[in-house]
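=== Discrete structure encoding ===
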Amino acid sequence: MKLFTKLALTASTLTLGFAILNGSSASAAIINYAFTVDSPITKGKGLFSFDDSTFSNNAIPVALVKSLSFQFDNDSNLYTEKDDTEYPNYPLVFPTLSLINQTPIGLQYSFYDKANPSIYYEINGYNTNNEQKFAISSPNNQIIFGNVSYSRVPEPSLLGGTLMACSIGYFMKRKVTLAKKVKA
């Protein structure tokens, strides 16, 4: 019986901890995400940011992406939010509700290839079979699918605070070690 109680307490603590980590912030914040696209013919990496206080009150809340940069591997062209085919109303970011896919957001971004405008790319953050899709449409109407993955980029203040706390800990440990050597 004790084992069951400990497991239940551990499970509830972890659940609450993850809920707090993934919860919305109480105040407005600029949220940064890195994303990668992977298809059979091309791969690429990008970054985007949005203000989490600007989500609409629609059935599916959306927020306008504030900044976006994306580049395919081995390609010198840099794509930004202004390259979206429906700019300035797009690109958009929205929350996702999939329990299998742990990404809490999705990106909607469509753009033409700068070197060959007959090629069209679309990052579709709406989950399809618990995957977020990347599509390439070629001039001969061939569509090639790939996947998109996201990872949240920590805020610089959080990284700075962590670095400062570790530095203070290191210097305190060093001070204690030196004090022990002086007493000996």
Q: What stands out?
A: The CA atoms of residues 176 and 182 lie 10 Å apart.
